[in-house]
Amino acid sequence: MPFSVNGGQILMKNKTFTKIISCILIAVMVLSMPLSAVAAEISAVPVIYVGGISDNALYKNPNKNSSEVVFDINSSDFTGDVTKILAGMLLSDTKQAATPVISGIKGIMEPILCAPNGTSFSSDIGPWEYTTSIADYKADSVYSDNMKALIEAASPYVSENEIFVFSYDWRLDPLDNADYLYDYIDHVKSLTSSKKVSLLAVGTGGIVVNTYLHENEEHARNNIASCVFFNSSLLGNAIVGDFMKGRVARLATDNDNIIDGIKEISGETRGNAFFDFVSEDSLKIISGVTSNLLGEGSLSNLIGVLFWEVFEMIAKGEDLHKTIGKGYNNFALSASADAIFEDFLKEYLRNMPGLWAMVPQKDYDEAIEFLFGDVFSMNAQLRDTVTSYRRVQVETAATLNTAKNNGINVCVVAGYGLQLLPVTISLDDVSDSIESTKYASVGAVTSDNSTENGHFANCFYDNHNHVAPSGEIDASYCALPENTWFIKGLPHGDMTNEAVADFIVWLLFGFSQRHIRESSDYTQYLKYNRYGKLTADAVDGEDVIKKGDVDIDGDVDASDARLALRISVGLETVTKEVKAIADVDGVTGVSAADARLILRYSVGLEQSL
Question: pTM here?
Protein backbone atom coordinates (compact mmCIF):
# COMPACT_ATOMS: atom_id res chain seq x y z
CA MET A 1 0.00 0.00 0.00
CA PRO A 2 2.72 2.51 0.88
CA PHE A 3 4.22 1.52 -2.45
CA SER A 4 1.06 2.33 -4.18
CA VAL A 5 0.70 5.58 -2.26
CA ASN A 6 4.27 6.59 -2.98
CA GLY A 7 3.76 5.52 -6.52
CA GLY A 8 0.69 7.69 -6.68
CA GLN A 9 2.65 10.61 -5.27
CA ILE A 10 5.35 10.07 -7.83
CA LEU A 11 2.74 9.84 -10.54
CA MET A 12 1.10 13.05 -9.36
CA LYS A 13 4.47 14.78 -9.26
CA ASN A 14 5.15 13.60 -12.80
CA LYS A 15 1.78 14.94 -13.91
CA THR A 16 2.50 18.26 -12.25
CA PHE A 17 5.90 18.42 -13.93
CA THR A 18 4.30 17.56 -17.25
CA LYS A 19 1.74 20.32 -16.82
CA ILE A 20 4.49 22.82 -16.05
CA ILE A 21 6.43 21.80 -19.16
CA SER A 22 3.25 21.93 -21.24
CA CYS A 23 2.43 25.40 -19.97
CA ILE A 24 5.93 26.60 -20.82
CA LEU A 25 5.69 25.16 -24.33
CA ILE A 26 2.24 26.68 -24.86
CA ALA A 27 3.50 30.04 -23.61
CA VAL A 28 6.45 29.89 -26.01
CA MET A 29 4.13 29.02 -28.90
CA VAL A 30 1.65 31.75 -28.04
CA LEU A 31 4.33 34.39 -27.61
CA SER A 32 5.93 33.45 -30.91
CA MET A 33 2.68 33.43 -32.89
CA PRO A 34 2.44 37.18 -33.58
CA LEU A 35 5.88 37.21 -35.20
CA SER A 36 5.06 34.14 -37.27
CA ALA A 37 1.73 35.62 -38.27
CA VAL A 38 3.36 38.87 -39.36
CA ALA A 39 5.95 36.99 -41.37
CA ALA A 40 3.26 34.94 -43.07
CA GLU A 41 0.92 37.82 -43.80
CA ILE A 42 3.38 40.52 -44.82
CA SER A 43 6.75 39.12 -45.72
CA ALA A 44 5.74 36.26 -48.00
CA VAL A 45 2.29 36.91 -49.40
CA PRO A 46 1.32 36.70 -53.08
CA VAL A 47 1.78 39.81 -55.22
CA ILE A 48 -0.84 41.21 -57.59
CA TYR A 49 0.62 43.43 -60.31
CA VAL A 50 -1.77 46.17 -61.53
CA GLY A 51 -0.11 47.72 -64.56
CA GLY A 52 -0.71 50.75 -66.73
CA ILE A 53 -2.15 51.16 -70.21
CA SER A 54 0.87 49.49 -71.82
CA ASP A 55 0.20 46.37 -69.72
CA ASN A 56 -3.47 46.22 -70.66
CA ALA A 57 -3.98 45.56 -74.33
CA LEU A 58 -7.59 45.41 -75.47
CA TYR A 59 -8.94 42.43 -77.42
CA LYS A 60 -11.98 41.55 -79.42
CA ASN A 61 -13.35 38.35 -77.86
CA PRO A 62 -10.68 38.13 -75.13
CA ASN A 63 -9.81 34.72 -73.65
CA LYS A 64 -11.20 32.94 -76.71
CA ASN A 65 -9.57 31.20 -79.65
CA SER A 66 -11.09 33.83 -81.93
CA SER A 67 -9.58 36.75 -80.01
CA GLU A 68 -7.69 39.52 -81.78
CA VAL A 69 -5.88 42.59 -80.51
CA VAL A 70 -7.64 45.89 -81.18
CA PHE A 71 -5.46 48.20 -79.06
CA ASP A 72 -1.91 47.51 -77.87
CA ILE A 73 0.68 50.27 -77.60
CA ASN A 74 3.38 47.62 -77.98
CA SER A 75 2.05 46.42 -81.35
CA SER A 76 3.37 47.27 -84.80
CA ASP A 77 -0.04 48.65 -85.84
CA PHE A 78 0.03 51.14 -82.97
CA THR A 79 3.60 52.06 -83.85
CA GLY A 80 2.63 52.77 -87.43
CA ASP A 81 -0.23 55.02 -86.40
CA VAL A 82 1.91 56.96 -83.92
CA THR A 83 4.58 57.36 -86.58
CA LYS A 84 1.99 59.02 -88.82
CA ILE A 85 1.01 61.37 -86.01
CA LEU A 86 4.60 62.32 -85.20
CA ALA A 87 5.44 62.77 -88.85
CA GLY A 88 2.48 65.08 -89.27
CA MET A 89 3.24 67.10 -86.16
CA LEU A 90 7.01 67.35 -86.45
CA LEU A 91 8.18 66.78 -89.97
CA SER A 92 5.44 67.54 -92.50
CA ASP A 93 4.59 70.76 -94.25
CA THR A 94 1.82 72.53 -92.32
CA LYS A 95 -0.67 72.25 -95.18
CA GLN A 96 -0.20 68.50 -95.29
CA ALA A 97 0.09 67.92 -91.54
CA ALA A 98 -3.54 67.16 -90.82
CA THR A 99 -3.78 64.16 -93.15
CA PRO A 100 -1.28 61.83 -91.42
CA VAL A 101 -2.31 63.03 -87.97
CA ILE A 102 -6.00 62.35 -88.59
CA SER A 103 -5.18 59.00 -90.19
CA GLY A 104 -3.05 58.03 -87.20
CA ILE A 105 -5.67 59.05 -84.65
CA LYS A 106 -8.37 57.11 -86.49
CA GLY A 107 -6.22 54.01 -86.62
CA ILE A 108 -5.62 54.11 -82.87
CA MET A 109 -8.96 55.22 -81.51
CA GLU A 110 -11.80 54.04 -83.74
CA PRO A 111 -11.74 50.38 -82.62
CA ILE A 112 -12.09 51.35 -78.95
CA LEU A 113 -14.63 54.16 -79.02
CA CYS A 114 -16.94 54.61 -76.05
CA ALA A 115 -20.63 55.48 -76.19
CA PRO A 116 -21.83 58.86 -74.87
CA ASN A 117 -22.76 57.24 -71.54
CA GLY A 118 -19.15 56.13 -70.97
CA THR A 119 -19.57 52.44 -71.75
CA SER A 120 -17.85 50.58 -74.57
CA PHE A 121 -19.57 50.72 -77.95
CA SER A 122 -18.58 47.09 -78.45
CA SER A 123 -19.48 44.64 -75.69
CA ASP A 124 -16.97 42.12 -77.02
CA ILE A 125 -13.96 44.43 -76.44
CA GLY A 126 -11.96 44.04 -73.25
CA PRO A 127 -8.68 42.96 -71.61
CA TRP A 128 -7.31 39.44 -71.43
CA GLU A 129 -8.03 37.95 -68.01
CA TYR A 130 -5.14 36.22 -66.22
CA THR A 131 -6.95 33.78 -63.97
CA THR A 132 -3.85 31.98 -62.69
CA SER A 133 -0.30 33.02 -61.79
CA ILE A 134 2.22 34.55 -64.17
CA ALA A 135 3.91 31.14 -64.39
CA ASP A 136 1.14 30.07 -66.77
CA TYR A 137 1.57 33.02 -69.14
CA LYS A 138 5.24 32.94 -70.09
CA ALA A 139 4.40 32.90 -73.79
CA ASP A 140 2.21 36.01 -73.50
CA SER A 141 3.15 39.67 -73.80
CA VAL A 142 2.35 40.13 -70.11
CA TYR A 143 5.55 38.18 -69.39
CA SER A 144 7.53 41.34 -70.10
CA ASP A 145 11.05 42.39 -69.17
CA ASN A 146 9.56 44.29 -66.23
CA MET A 147 7.76 41.16 -65.07
CA LYS A 148 10.89 39.03 -65.42
CA ALA A 149 12.83 41.53 -63.30
CA LEU A 150 10.10 41.52 -60.66
CA ILE A 151 10.03 37.71 -60.55
CA GLU A 152 13.80 37.52 -60.14
CA ALA A 153 13.95 40.18 -57.44
CA ALA A 154 11.03 38.66 -55.51
CA SER A 155 12.36 35.09 -55.67
CA PRO A 156 13.70 35.11 -52.07
CA TYR A 157 10.14 35.73 -50.89
CA VAL A 158 7.70 34.24 -53.41
CA SER A 159 7.87 32.11 -56.54
CA GLU A 160 6.39 33.00 -59.92
CA ASN A 161 3.44 30.82 -58.89
CA GLU A 162 2.59 33.51 -56.35
CA ILE A 163 2.75 36.52 -58.67
CA PHE A 164 -0.47 37.47 -60.44
CA VAL A 165 -1.54 40.11 -62.97
CA PHE A 166 -4.83 41.95 -62.66
CA SER A 167 -5.97 43.25 -66.04
CA TYR A 168 -8.66 45.84 -66.61
CA ASP A 169 -10.23 47.98 -69.31
CA TRP A 170 -8.48 51.31 -68.77
CA ARG A 171 -11.12 53.15 -70.85
CA LEU A 172 -13.93 52.49 -68.42
CA ASP A 173 -15.18 53.49 -64.96
CA PRO A 174 -12.41 53.17 -62.31
CA LEU A 175 -15.03 52.30 -59.70
CA ASP A 176 -16.13 49.29 -61.75
CA ASN A 177 -12.50 48.26 -62.20
CA ALA A 178 -12.01 48.60 -58.43
CA ASP A 179 -14.92 46.20 -57.90
CA TYR A 180 -13.26 43.70 -60.24
CA LEU A 181 -10.01 44.08 -58.29
CA TYR A 182 -11.91 43.35 -55.06
CA ASP A 183 -13.09 40.05 -56.58
CA TYR A 184 -9.64 39.27 -58.01
CA ILE A 185 -8.03 39.70 -54.59
CA ASP A 186 -10.46 37.15 -53.16
CA HIS A 187 -9.76 34.88 -56.14
CA VAL A 188 -5.98 34.98 -55.58
CA LYS A 189 -6.39 34.34 -51.86
CA SER A 190 -8.53 31.32 -52.66
CA LEU A 191 -5.99 29.95 -55.15
CA THR A 192 -3.03 30.40 -52.80
CA SER A 193 -4.69 29.87 -49.41
CA SER A 194 -3.01 33.08 -48.29
CA LYS A 195 -4.56 35.35 -45.68
CA LYS A 196 -3.40 38.50 -47.46
CA VAL A 197 -1.91 39.75 -50.73
CA SER A 198 0.24 42.73 -51.71
CA LEU A 199 -0.48 45.15 -54.55
CA LEU A 200 2.02 46.74 -56.95
CA ALA A 201 0.42 49.54 -59.01
CA VAL A 202 2.10 51.18 -62.02
CA GLY A 203 0.82 54.12 -64.07
CA THR A 204 -2.96 54.04 -64.44
CA GLY A 205 -2.95 50.94 -62.26
CA GLY A 206 -2.58 53.39 -59.39
CA ILE A 207 -6.00 54.82 -60.23
CA VAL A 208 -7.60 51.38 -59.90
CA VAL A 209 -5.82 50.53 -56.65
CA ASN A 210 -6.47 53.95 -55.13
CA THR A 211 -10.16 53.59 -55.96
CA TYR A 212 -10.24 50.11 -54.41
CA LEU A 213 -8.68 51.44 -51.20
CA HIS A 214 -11.10 54.37 -51.13
CA GLU A 215 -14.24 52.30 -51.67
CA ASN A 216 -13.33 49.21 -49.64
CA GLU A 217 -11.57 50.28 -46.45
CA GLU A 218 -12.54 47.23 -44.39
CA HIS A 219 -11.78 44.73 -47.15
CA ALA A 220 -8.38 46.34 -47.69
CA ARG A 221 -7.62 46.32 -43.95
CA ASN A 222 -8.27 42.57 -43.78
CA ASN A 223 -6.75 41.50 -47.08
CA ILE A 224 -3.86 43.79 -48.10
CA ALA A 225 -0.39 43.53 -46.58
CA SER A 226 1.52 46.05 -48.72
CA CYS A 227 0.54 48.52 -51.41
CA VAL A 228 3.25 50.12 -53.55
CA PHE A 229 2.48 52.85 -56.10
CA PHE A 230 5.21 53.10 -58.75
CA ASN A 231 5.05 56.13 -61.09
CA SER A 232 1.27 56.17 -60.78
CA SER A 233 -1.34 58.67 -62.00
CA LEU A 234 -2.68 59.19 -58.49
CA LEU A 235 -3.61 62.85 -58.86
CA GLY A 236 -3.92 62.74 -62.64
CA ASN A 237 -1.64 63.12 -65.63
CA ALA A 238 -0.69 66.55 -66.96
CA ILE A 239 -0.45 65.40 -70.58
CA VAL A 240 -3.95 63.91 -70.56
CA GLY A 241 -5.31 66.95 -68.75
CA ASP A 242 -3.86 69.27 -71.36
CA PHE A 243 -5.16 67.23 -74.27
CA MET A 244 -8.63 67.09 -72.72
CA LYS A 245 -8.46 70.91 -72.61
CA GLY A 246 -7.23 71.12 -76.19
CA ARG A 247 -4.00 72.71 -75.01
CA VAL A 248 -1.13 71.55 -77.19
CA ALA A 249 2.25 73.17 -76.66
CA ARG A 250 3.12 76.35 -78.52
CA LEU A 251 6.87 75.97 -78.86
CA ALA A 252 9.25 78.73 -79.88
CA THR A 253 11.62 77.85 -82.69
CA ASP A 254 14.61 78.00 -80.34
CA ASN A 255 12.96 75.96 -77.57
CA ASP A 256 15.12 73.13 -76.21
CA ASN A 257 12.32 71.01 -74.78
CA ILE A 258 11.83 68.85 -77.87
CA ILE A 259 15.57 68.34 -78.08
CA ASP A 260 15.73 67.35 -74.41
CA GLY A 261 12.92 64.88 -74.93
CA ILE A 262 14.59 63.37 -77.99
CA LYS A 263 17.88 63.05 -76.15
CA GLU A 264 16.20 61.21 -73.31
CA ILE A 265 14.27 58.68 -75.34
CA SER A 266 17.26 58.13 -77.63
CA GLY A 267 19.49 57.41 -74.67
CA GLU A 268 21.84 60.39 -74.77
CA THR A 269 21.11 61.18 -71.14
CA ARG A 270 22.26 57.66 -70.33
CA GLY A 271 25.70 58.25 -71.74
CA ASN A 272 25.18 57.71 -75.46
CA ALA A 273 26.20 60.53 -77.77
CA PHE A 274 23.38 60.09 -80.26
CA PHE A 275 23.76 63.55 -81.67
CA ASP A 276 27.28 62.82 -82.88
CA PHE A 277 25.86 60.46 -85.52
CA VAL A 278 25.64 62.53 -88.67
CA SER A 279 27.40 60.41 -91.28
CA GLU A 280 25.66 58.26 -93.89
CA ASP A 281 26.95 55.12 -92.19
CA SER A 282 25.57 56.32 -88.89
CA LEU A 283 22.17 56.94 -90.43
CA LYS A 284 22.04 53.31 -91.51
CA ILE A 285 22.47 51.99 -87.98
CA ILE A 286 20.14 54.35 -86.10
CA SER A 287 17.33 51.81 -85.78
CA GLY A 288 19.72 49.16 -84.54
CA VAL A 289 21.38 51.44 -82.02
CA THR A 290 18.01 52.61 -80.73
CA SER A 291 16.83 49.04 -80.29
CA ASN A 292 20.01 48.26 -78.40
CA LEU A 293 19.41 51.20 -76.08
CA LEU A 294 15.76 50.58 -75.36
CA GLY A 295 15.43 46.85 -75.93
CA GLU A 296 13.74 45.02 -78.78
CA GLY A 297 10.18 46.03 -79.54
CA SER A 298 7.96 48.24 -81.60
CA LEU A 299 8.65 51.35 -79.52
CA SER A 300 12.32 51.06 -80.44
CA ASN A 301 11.42 50.66 -84.09
CA LEU A 302 9.17 53.71 -83.93
CA ILE A 303 11.92 55.84 -82.45
CA GLY A 304 14.36 54.42 -84.97
CA VAL A 305 12.12 55.52 -87.84
CA LEU A 306 11.70 58.97 -86.34
CA PHE A 307 15.44 59.40 -85.78
CA TRP A 308 16.20 58.28 -89.31
CA GLU A 309 14.25 61.31 -90.49
CA VAL A 310 15.78 63.60 -87.87
CA PHE A 311 19.37 62.62 -88.54
CA GLU A 312 18.90 62.75 -92.26
CA MET A 313 17.98 66.41 -91.79
CA ILE A 314 21.10 66.93 -89.68
CA ALA A 315 23.25 65.28 -92.32
CA LYS A 316 21.86 67.72 -94.86
CA GLY A 317 23.00 70.58 -92.66
CA GLU A 318 19.56 71.57 -91.39
CA ASP A 319 19.27 73.09 -87.92
CA LEU A 320 17.53 70.50 -85.75
CA HIS A 321 16.20 73.03 -83.26
CA LYS A 322 14.70 75.23 -85.94
CA THR A 323 13.45 72.43 -88.18
CA ILE A 324 11.58 70.45 -85.53
CA GLY A 325 10.69 73.46 -83.42
CA LYS A 326 9.32 75.35 -86.42
CA GLY A 327 7.52 72.30 -87.78
CA TYR A 328 5.82 71.56 -84.49
CA ASN A 329 5.11 75.19 -83.72
CA ASN A 330 3.54 75.76 -87.11
CA PHE A 331 1.42 72.66 -86.75
CA ALA A 332 0.26 73.57 -83.25
CA LEU A 333 -0.76 77.04 -84.41
CA SER A 334 -2.40 75.87 -87.61
CA ALA A 335 -6.04 75.46 -88.50
CA SER A 336 -5.25 71.77 -88.97
CA ALA A 337 -4.49 71.39 -85.28
CA ASP A 338 -7.67 73.20 -84.32
CA ALA A 339 -9.70 70.96 -86.61
CA ILE A 340 -8.15 67.82 -85.16
CA PHE A 341 -8.90 68.85 -81.61
CA GLU A 342 -12.38 70.10 -82.39
CA ASP A 343 -13.53 67.20 -84.56
CA PHE A 344 -11.50 64.16 -83.64
CA LEU A 345 -10.24 64.47 -80.09
CA LYS A 346 -13.69 65.46 -78.88
CA GLU A 347 -15.19 62.44 -80.57
CA TYR A 348 -12.56 60.01 -79.35
CA LEU A 349 -11.62 61.29 -75.90
CA ARG A 350 -14.57 62.82 -74.18
CA ASN A 351 -16.63 59.68 -73.54
CA MET A 352 -13.91 57.61 -71.85
CA PRO A 353 -14.22 57.60 -68.03
CA GLY A 354 -10.71 56.15 -67.77
CA LEU A 355 -9.25 59.24 -69.42
CA TRP A 356 -11.33 61.54 -67.23
CA ALA A 357 -9.79 59.76 -64.24
CA MET A 358 -6.39 60.99 -65.48
CA VAL A 359 -7.42 64.65 -65.58
CA PRO A 360 -5.90 66.62 -62.67
CA GLN A 361 -8.37 68.53 -60.50
CA LYS A 362 -7.24 71.92 -61.78
CA ASP A 363 -8.02 70.91 -65.36
CA TYR A 364 -11.53 69.45 -64.93
CA ASP A 365 -13.60 72.59 -65.50
CA GLU A 366 -11.64 73.74 -68.54
CA ALA A 367 -11.71 70.22 -70.01
CA ILE A 368 -15.49 69.99 -69.59
CA GLU A 369 -15.92 73.41 -71.18
CA PHE A 370 -13.71 72.45 -74.13
CA LEU A 371 -15.22 69.02 -74.73
CA PHE A 372 -18.88 69.65 -73.86
CA GLY A 373 -19.46 73.38 -73.45
CA ASP A 374 -20.81 72.85 -69.93
CA VAL A 375 -21.32 69.99 -67.50
CA PHE A 376 -25.05 69.76 -68.22
CA SER A 377 -24.34 68.92 -71.85
CA MET A 378 -22.65 65.69 -70.78
CA ASN A 379 -24.61 62.47 -70.84
CA ALA A 380 -26.08 62.07 -67.33
CA GLN A 381 -24.56 58.62 -66.78
CA LEU A 382 -21.12 59.78 -67.91
CA ARG A 383 -21.40 62.87 -65.72
CA ASP A 384 -22.21 60.73 -62.67
CA THR A 385 -19.31 58.39 -63.44
CA VAL A 386 -16.82 61.22 -63.86
CA THR A 387 -18.07 63.01 -60.75
CA SER A 388 -17.80 59.84 -58.65
CA TYR A 389 -14.15 59.34 -59.52
CA ARG A 390 -13.38 63.02 -59.08
CA ARG A 391 -14.41 62.56 -55.43
CA VAL A 392 -12.00 59.63 -55.16
CA GLN A 393 -9.13 61.65 -56.63
CA VAL A 394 -9.76 64.61 -54.30
CA GLU A 395 -9.58 62.30 -51.29
CA THR A 396 -6.44 60.42 -52.37
CA ALA A 397 -4.24 61.75 -49.56
CA ALA A 398 -6.84 60.79 -46.95
CA THR A 399 -7.28 57.36 -48.56
CA LEU A 400 -3.56 56.56 -48.41
CA ASN A 401 -3.27 57.75 -44.82
CA THR A 402 -6.29 55.69 -43.79
CA ALA A 403 -4.80 52.58 -45.39
CA LYS A 404 -1.50 53.22 -43.63
CA ASN A 405 -3.22 53.77 -40.28
CA ASN A 406 -5.08 50.50 -40.81
CA GLY A 407 -1.79 48.62 -40.88
CA ILE A 408 -1.18 48.42 -44.62
CA ASN A 409 2.41 49.09 -45.69
CA VAL A 410 1.76 51.95 -48.15
CA CYS A 411 4.67 53.28 -50.23
CA VAL A 412 4.77 55.79 -53.09
CA VAL A 413 7.55 56.06 -55.68
CA ALA A 414 7.74 58.94 -58.18
CA GLY A 415 10.30 59.79 -60.84
CA TYR A 416 11.94 63.10 -61.72
CA GLY A 417 14.77 64.59 -63.73
CA LEU A 418 13.39 63.78 -67.20
CA GLN A 419 11.70 66.00 -69.76
CA LEU A 420 7.92 65.60 -69.88
CA LEU A 421 6.90 64.67 -73.42
CA PRO A 422 7.01 68.07 -75.15
CA VAL A 423 3.55 68.00 -76.71
CA THR A 424 1.44 70.05 -74.28
CA ILE A 425 1.64 73.23 -72.24
CA SER A 426 2.86 71.29 -69.18
CA LEU A 427 6.15 70.42 -70.85
CA ASP A 428 8.15 72.15 -68.10
CA ASP A 429 6.79 69.97 -65.30
CA VAL A 430 9.31 68.02 -63.24
CA SER A 431 8.56 64.47 -64.37
CA ASP A 432 9.60 60.93 -65.28
CA SER A 433 8.76 61.82 -68.93
CA ILE A 434 5.13 60.60 -68.61
CA GLU A 435 3.92 61.37 -65.08
CA SER A 436 4.39 64.78 -63.47
CA THR A 437 6.19 64.30 -60.16
CA LYS A 438 3.75 66.47 -58.24
CA TYR A 439 0.87 64.19 -59.20
CA ALA A 440 2.62 60.82 -58.91
CA SER A 441 3.94 61.72 -55.44
CA VAL A 442 0.51 62.90 -54.23
CA GLY A 443 1.39 66.46 -53.42
CA ALA A 444 5.10 67.25 -53.67
CA VAL A 445 5.83 70.88 -54.47
CA THR A 446 8.02 70.97 -57.57
CA SER A 447 9.80 73.64 -59.53
CA ASP A 448 9.39 74.57 -63.17
CA ASN A 449 12.12 73.17 -65.42
CA SER A 450 12.23 76.44 -67.34
CA THR A 451 13.10 78.48 -64.25
CA GLU A 452 16.04 80.79 -64.84
CA ASN A 453 19.12 80.40 -62.63
CA GLY A 454 18.04 77.09 -61.13
CA HIS A 455 15.04 74.97 -60.34
CA PHE A 456 13.45 76.95 -57.53
CA ALA A 457 10.26 78.51 -58.85
CA ASN A 458 7.75 76.98 -56.47
CA CYS A 459 9.77 75.26 -53.76
CA PHE A 460 9.43 76.21 -50.12
CA TYR A 461 12.33 75.98 -47.69
CA ASP A 462 11.67 75.68 -43.97
CA ASN A 463 14.76 73.77 -42.80
CA HIS A 464 13.06 70.38 -42.77
CA ASN A 465 14.52 67.26 -44.32
CA HIS A 466 12.38 66.59 -47.39
CA VAL A 467 13.97 68.85 -50.03
CA ALA A 468 15.73 67.26 -52.99
CA PRO A 469 19.48 67.89 -53.27
CA SER A 470 18.81 69.77 -56.51
CA GLY A 471 16.18 71.91 -54.80
CA GLU A 472 13.51 71.08 -57.37
CA ILE A 473 11.26 69.00 -55.09
CA ASP A 474 9.87 69.57 -51.61
CA ALA A 475 8.34 66.29 -50.41
CA SER A 476 7.08 67.66 -47.10
CA TYR A 477 3.79 68.44 -48.82
CA CYS A 478 3.20 64.84 -49.94
CA ALA A 479 0.34 62.77 -48.55
CA LEU A 480 2.96 60.43 -47.05
CA PRO A 481 6.20 62.44 -46.74
CA GLU A 482 7.93 59.71 -44.72
CA ASN A 483 6.87 56.95 -47.12
CA THR A 484 7.44 58.58 -50.52
CA TRP A 485 10.60 58.05 -52.58
CA PHE A 486 11.87 59.82 -55.70
CA ILE A 487 14.14 58.35 -58.38
CA LYS A 488 16.01 60.76 -60.63
CA GLY A 489 16.50 59.83 -64.28
CA LEU A 490 14.45 56.63 -64.25
CA PRO A 491 12.22 56.29 -67.34
CA HIS A 492 8.53 55.91 -66.52
CA GLY A 493 7.62 52.54 -65.02
CA ASP A 494 10.97 50.92 -65.85
CA MET A 495 11.85 48.05 -63.50
CA THR A 496 14.22 46.22 -65.83
CA ASN A 497 17.27 47.46 -63.96
CA GLU A 498 18.06 44.92 -61.23
CA ALA A 499 18.60 47.63 -58.62
CA VAL A 500 15.20 49.19 -59.29
CA ALA A 501 13.42 45.84 -59.07
CA ASP A 502 15.26 45.08 -55.82
CA PHE A 503 14.08 48.41 -54.40
CA ILE A 504 10.45 47.79 -55.35
CA VAL A 505 10.61 44.33 -53.81
CA TRP A 506 12.18 45.78 -50.64
CA LEU A 507 9.16 48.06 -50.38
CA LEU A 508 6.69 45.23 -51.02
CA PHE A 509 8.07 42.74 -48.52
CA GLY A 510 8.45 44.76 -45.36
CA PHE A 511 7.63 43.39 -41.92
CA SER A 512 6.08 46.77 -41.12
CA GLN A 513 5.59 50.18 -42.71
CA ARG A 514 8.66 51.07 -44.79
CA HIS A 515 10.00 54.62 -44.32
CA ILE A 516 12.63 56.86 -45.85
CA ARG A 517 15.02 56.69 -42.86
CA GLU A 518 14.95 52.91 -42.63
CA SER A 519 17.81 52.08 -45.00
CA SER A 520 20.88 54.01 -46.06
CA ASP A 521 20.57 52.22 -49.42
CA TYR A 522 17.15 53.71 -50.07
CA THR A 523 17.10 57.35 -49.04
CA GLN A 524 14.21 59.56 -50.07
CA TYR A 525 16.01 60.87 -53.15
CA LEU A 526 17.69 58.27 -55.34
CA LYS A 527 19.50 58.47 -58.65
CA TYR A 528 19.14 55.91 -61.43
CA ASN A 529 22.23 54.54 -63.10
CA ARG A 530 21.49 52.33 -66.07
CA TYR A 531 24.78 50.49 -65.61
CA GLY A 532 24.80 50.20 -61.83
CA LYS A 533 22.68 50.44 -58.73
CA LEU A 534 20.47 53.12 -57.31
CA THR A 535 22.44 55.64 -55.30
CA ALA A 536 21.51 58.57 -53.10
CA ASP A 537 21.00 61.63 -55.29
CA ALA A 538 24.10 63.68 -54.47
CA VAL A 539 23.55 63.65 -50.72
CA ASP A 540 20.62 62.62 -48.59
CA GLY A 541 17.77 65.10 -48.49
CA GLU A 542 18.34 66.05 -44.84
CA ASP A 543 19.20 69.71 -44.37
CA VAL A 544 20.41 70.05 -47.96
CA ILE A 545 19.45 73.69 -48.44
CA LYS A 546 21.68 75.70 -46.11
CA LYS A 547 21.38 79.35 -45.24
CA GLY A 548 24.13 81.19 -47.07
CA ASP A 549 24.59 78.46 -49.71
CA VAL A 550 23.59 80.91 -52.41
CA ASP A 551 24.82 78.84 -55.36
CA ILE A 552 23.18 75.68 -53.91
CA ASP A 553 26.28 73.51 -54.19
CA GLY A 554 26.10 72.06 -50.67
CA ASP A 555 28.82 74.27 -49.14
CA VAL A 556 28.93 77.80 -47.77
CA ASP A 557 32.14 79.42 -48.98
CA ALA A 558 33.62 82.62 -50.41
CA SER A 559 31.89 82.13 -53.76
CA ASP A 560 28.53 82.38 -51.97
CA ALA A 561 29.61 85.64 -50.33
CA ARG A 562 30.65 87.03 -53.72
CA LEU A 563 27.33 85.98 -55.28
CA ALA A 564 25.38 87.55 -52.40
CA LEU A 565 27.28 90.80 -52.91
CA ARG A 566 26.51 90.80 -56.65
CA ILE A 567 22.82 90.18 -55.87
CA SER A 568 22.80 93.07 -53.41
CA VAL A 569 24.01 95.56 -56.02
CA GLY A 570 21.80 94.24 -58.83
CA LEU A 571 24.44 92.44 -60.87
CA GLU A 572 22.66 89.07 -60.56
CA THR A 573 18.97 88.33 -61.13
CA VAL A 574 17.75 85.37 -59.09
CA THR A 575 14.47 83.98 -57.77
CA LYS A 576 12.95 85.05 -54.48
CA GLU A 577 13.83 81.67 -52.96
CA VAL A 578 17.53 82.17 -53.72
CA LYS A 579 17.30 85.67 -52.27
CA ALA A 580 15.86 84.12 -49.10
CA ILE A 581 18.88 81.83 -48.87
CA ALA A 582 21.25 84.80 -49.32
CA ASP A 583 19.43 87.03 -46.81
CA VAL A 584 21.12 85.47 -43.79
CA ASP A 585 20.46 88.33 -41.36
CA GLY A 586 16.79 88.56 -42.31
CA VAL A 587 16.92 92.35 -42.56
CA THR A 588 15.65 94.34 -45.57
CA GLY A 589 16.62 91.87 -48.26
CA VAL A 590 20.06 90.89 -49.54
CA SER A 591 22.75 93.42 -48.65
CA ALA A 592 26.51 93.78 -48.27
CA ALA A 593 26.03 92.85 -44.61
CA ASP A 594 24.74 89.42 -45.69
CA ALA A 595 27.75 88.92 -47.94
CA ARG A 596 30.06 89.84 -45.02
CA LEU A 597 28.33 87.36 -42.67
CA ILE A 598 28.55 84.58 -45.24
CA LEU A 599 32.25 85.25 -45.78
CA ARG A 600 32.95 85.26 -42.02
CA TYR A 601 31.02 82.01 -41.60
CA SER A 602 32.94 80.36 -44.44
CA VAL A 603 36.29 81.00 -42.69
CA GLY A 604 35.06 80.08 -39.22
CA LEU A 605 34.62 83.57 -37.74
CA GLU A 606 30.86 83.05 -37.32
CA GLN A 607 29.46 79.95 -35.64
CA SER A 608 26.09 80.02 -37.37
CA LEU A 609 23.99 81.88 -39.91
Answer: 0.70
